[in-house]
Structure prediction request, 1412 residues.
Amino acid sequence: MEILEMQSICKEFPGARVLNNVNLSVRKNEIHALLGENGAGKSTLMKILTGIYTMNSGSIKYQGQQVNISGPKHAEELGIVMIHQEFNLIPQLSIAENIFLGNEKEFTTLGKINWRALTSASLQYLNQVGLKVHPKTQVADLSVGEKQLTEIAKALSKQAKLLIMDEPTAALTETEKEKLFSIMQSLVNQGVSIIYISHRMEELFQICHRVTVLRDGEYVATQDIPNTTIDKLVALMVGREVSERFPKSTTTPGDLLLQIENFSNHRLNNINLQMKAGEVVGIGGLMGAGRTELARAIFGLDRVSGNLKLHSKDGTSFSGTFSHPQDAIRHGLAMVSEDRKDQGLVLPFSVKENLALPTLNSRSKFGVIKHKAENEMADHYINLLRIKTQNREQKVISLSGGNQQKVVFGKWLETHPSLLILDEPTRGVDVGAKVEIYELINSLTAQGLGIILISSDLQELMGMSDRIYVMYEGRITGHFSRNEVTEEAFMGCATGGVQ
Amino acid sequence: GGSKDPQAEAPKGDEKQLTVGIALSTLNNPFFVDMKDGAQAAADKIGAKLIVMDAQDDASKQVSQVEDLIQQKVDVILLNPTDSDGLVTAVADANKANIPVITLDRSVNGGTVVSHIASDNVAGGKLAAEFIVKQLEGKGSVVELEGIAGTSAARDRGQGFHEVIDVQADIKVVAKQPADFDRSKGMSVMENILQSQPEINAVFAHNDEMALGALQAIEAAKKQILIVGFDGGDDAVKAVNDGKMAATVAQQPKLIGELGIQFAEKVANGENVEANIPADLMLVVKE
Amino acid sequence: MKNPLGLMQKYKLGPLLGLLLICFVLTILTDRFFTTGNFLNVARQVSINALLGVGMTFVILTGGIDLSVGSILALSGALAAGSLAMGVDPILAVLVACLVGLIAGTINGTIVAFGRIAPFVATLATMTLFRGATLIYTEGRPIRAVSEGFNKLGGGYIGPIPTPVIITIIVFLLAWFVLSHMTFGRRIFAIGGNEEAARLSGIKTTRYKVLVYSISGLLAGLAGAILTSRLLSAQPTAGSGYELDAIAAVVIGGTSLAGGAGGVVGTLIGALIIGIIDNGLNLLNVSSFYQQAVKGLIILVAVLIDRRNAVRR
Amino acid sequence: MKNPLGLMQKYKLGPLLGLLLICFVLTILTDRFFTTGNFLNVARQVSINALLGVGMTFVILTGGIDLSVGSILALSGALAAGSLAMGVDPILAVLVACLVGLIAGTINGTIVAFGRIAPFVATLATMTLFRGATLIYTEGRPIRAVSEGFNKLGGGYIGPIPTPVIITIIVFLLAWFVLSHMTFGRRIFAIGGNEEAARLSGIKTTRYKVLVYSISGLLAGLAGAILTSRLLSAQPTAGSGYELDAIAAVVIGGTSLAGGAGGVVGTLIGALIIGIIDNGLNLLNVSSFYQQAVKGLIILVAVLIDRRNAVRR
Ligand SMILES: Nc1ncnc2c1ncn2[C@@H]1O[C@H](COP(=O)(O)OP(=O)(O)OP(=O)(O)O)[C@@H](O)[C@H]1O
Ligand SMILES: Nc1ncnc2c1ncn2[C@@H]1O[C@H](COP(=O)(O)OP(=O)(O)OP(=O)(O)O)[C@@H](O)[C@H]1O
Ligand SMILES: O[C@@H]1[C@H](O)[C@H](O)CO[C@H]1O
Ligand SMILES: [Mg+2]
Ligand SMILES: [Mg+2]
Prediction:
């Protein structure tokens, strides 16, 4: 039986038709995957379903009834709950308050909140998602992964009949992901239906029953998972064959590029690490292990004690620590940061202006910007990275998540770095684009670049790194070469065991 | 600055030093700076300590300042109220604390005040109007630049001015706008009026600052207009002598301040003083 | 913990430390400062700014700002005095002031929330508008407000404590309770913290945004009644510049202008800091020309000390 | 395109439309308005606020605010007049004013950028501080500034155009060029758009944050010299309240107080709107009590019309 039937949905934004006659039907007790490239319209379709956007035409049937969903609250009353791709948490409030935001009624008498009841009620959901943080903790103090778990707990608290998850695993590591899948399984057993959006193909085969594929705002197909393959789905999504998932090319490492000695600060504990030119060095670990902190320390964003030696390709070398990203950039470092909205992009800026930001000086004379050179540079990266945008002047805020990530990538490539730090570079990036990024990594290492790859996607980490360091609580607890690493050995170190 | 008080550090001699608090409506106007200077000089002469408060034209701020003076247990309070009604409470508080109050330049409408020292602003407005009527020979268009709406000075001068002007059949007030006792506002308001009124014969400004601003606007427009100000400040008197302004109604702020101290000493010594002490007004015209 | 002041950070004690420091210095410098009489005196002086500051805190917590409080204070004071003059009962006159404030605030809120105009511009415009209305109503003259009952509001005492101080304390406690223990208050924090997320959680953000300006207006109206009663007259120019002092109290108290973080406890401390600086400079007989410079410096230093202890990102 | 006003949105023509509407209405209501003489008159009156507004635009684009411009204007004017009185060359006196403004602005910037104090609080404190310094220096009295050379700055003409207008146009063009065509301007926008992302992209955000306040201070200093020269004297109270008008010009012109979006073209239009409203109300001889109310209403309506055409989310 169908719980949801969306028929011929069309949606236009000023100047862009984003959805064109899209159909989606979801059965009771089913986990239904929604698949498509970046910008295919997945999030938009789901925002229509939850009443955040109004569609231009089409119809929605829910539990056999024609419905006209007026807003998120209305959707919630119908039992349709969404976990958004971008976090929707209030940083200044506690976890417990965030979970019940808008639904505090049962914990209040005459408007006064019963804190004890609220806290203990939230504990139930935190345990369910396996988040071991006190419910009174401020959300601002959580790591990205912990925030994601809070979002999930919040959705669980709403007793959904139809739960929409827009890339919930993008920020999660293997353990949390497994936990999430078991939650999803038990929800389905209790009669809940789930729409699941993810760019991690193997997940679909682990957990989903059926899949609907969108391409460029059009409906392509709906298939039963057992009767399809990753390759078939990828072909449907992209409209062409994609050869290999992790096209890792092996390069012979060159000279010593980077040496980190005794890096310590309030979250790092005596980190030592080295890498050669042309190497991809992976850094793995569970949520909160301190990987991002290490990247920030290298890049001069946070204070750190210890020493860093860098031997750039132009023959210059540096010893010390960087005090400002500008230093780091000058010495050939670049960093694609973990959180593109908070740290990667200037949201009111256009694609062009974002791409140009770190390299303004190279396209200016006496401080005057050469607009022609800037336009050419922007078009170059839009083509090279296949950024889906109306033109170079479109504001990045209206790009899909994956395309925003490509813009961040492009701006750093333009600095022609000798060492590139990638902190979760494929979070929210579709398969096609992921492969493009991996190929890019290959061509960069072929040119002698060193790459530090931080990723919570174990497949990716093992598929793309030459060597892997594992971190736990700010320390390095393991170090593997490409061919000796196994999932068990990795997880052992990531949970604090010794190699 | 000139406000340094040499007496402040002086050891208290055998006999108790007289301490007077003076609460001024604002010090952002040379008129009151003169008043303060007059009081300071007089206080220095008799070896009294003077505590100066500047309320920046805010009645409730002034109430607070009087309260702070009461906390300091001064012997006499000289009050130049920002407003006649607003300071009644403060006077009542002082009365309760048995500290005598003398008002300067503007009066209060309640409480017990031992003495009031001021020039008569209504009379001053009349003086200015009569001068203009005479100069225009009873015929012409006049502009009035008003002080801050809601201050007694603006009110009283306007009242006196209109008492005379409004009964003139052939003199018309063609524009009447506030310029807040401020020179730059006086200029821009006058500039605008000059645009809208082709024919202007005289301007009466409620104080010299606005008159001097108007003068700038009029000179820039290359017009000949009779300007009358109020206060008799240095700049205005010079403008009158240079033939740029026609007249200013001179008050004697220094004298008002000086009298304030003299009477404060008398009151402190238990002498009886008159309830009303007028300070002379005088029309300053080119010698 | 590396930082010995960690505890202070956690409970945002920076402003309190600043306040204590200022009090300590003043106690040493003049024996007139640390007396019951002077404390009650300061408390009464501070009460108007504290009332405005409490209302302003609600507004700023949502990420807004209210520049019109001074004008609302004047307008409601004038209408209260006007009603008194028409022979209305004193209590009714106070209610008139509160009602006028409430309406004016609701106008602000409506323009901001439904007109989607930046709060700064909207309330800058209504600041001029309400001041104009006051001038029109009063014809630029103060209105006398002498009535025994009415004058007790601003000038009276309950026991040894001035009435305005009692009123301020009650308002402050109510506001504190609402902000820290009621859904209403928590939603205000949520809107300031992330308006979009709050909206997606089903909170009617526009409604709450209107309400915070209504509260600010209401308290400005109450302050107008108190000030009028204290001055025995409604001044058409009353309250000009008060918005800056109220905002300063809020921000010195640690509430972020971006919204979402802070509270009324800090605002009370902020208002006390400003009030005590004024009082202290007067008691110390600092020359009036130097007072402003010194006041500016002290505020700077107080905030700098506070910020040096703030968490670094 | 559904919305016929799409083009207007794209080029942010809302404020311009507002300006034209006001001009149209005034032309109908009074024949004194649409004359060359009055236009030059308005242009000269507006120039001070436009200069402050241009500096304020730089500050607001980074997400900051500068409340001290009025006080800086007074301080630099006073020191320029003081130097003149000491027999200094007129050109040097103008430079003194600019230098004083630059230093004062740099102090603001340093406190904001390195002291990490909210710009609102920091400049509120220096507003009081610089005003105090002015009072101390002038001892509360205007300082005469009569010197033929000096007085040409504010009172002179180049051809038929008043000198202050010429200066304002030059400053405006420079600012426009810097903001839209230079790396410096781009970085200012970036900082306002996302400070963290800007820092990560290698921009020394603190340096630029200091610089925008320096620019604002410098232009306030220049405005101080012009006003002093125009009034033939430096007033200790000059410029009080000017900060609000300057901010209003910026925001009416469409620059977001959150930073990152806007520009000086809008600010110029905003300053003209405010100036023309004042001028028009005077020309129409609107009763002084009604002027403020009407001005508030017009600003509200102008901004509301603008916002109604703004992109809906
Ligand atoms: N508010 C908007 N205005 C204009 N265009 C928009 C807006 N929101 C989304 N778009 C465009 O609509 C298209 C679909 O976006 P959507 O976010 O639905 O993609 P998606 O399938 O969720 O992609 P991803 O996997 O990257 O999250 C994109 O091309 C995007 O640029
Ligand atoms: N602002 C903060 N305040 C307090 N603790 C923080 C803050 N930011 C991060 N942490 C904590 O510091 C630790 C290291 O965080 P970091 O972001 O470096 O982890 P990570 O390995 O990159 O993990 P993630 O996958 O979550 O990004 C975590 O325990 C995290 O909770
Ligand atoms: O008498 C004074 C002066 O005229 C001054 O210019 C304004 O305030 C009045 O009280
Ligand atoms: Mg999406
Ligand atoms: Mg991380």
Remarks:
- Residues 1-14 of chain B have pLDDT under 50 and may be disordered.
- Residues 39 and 257 of chain B are 4 Å apart (CA to CA).
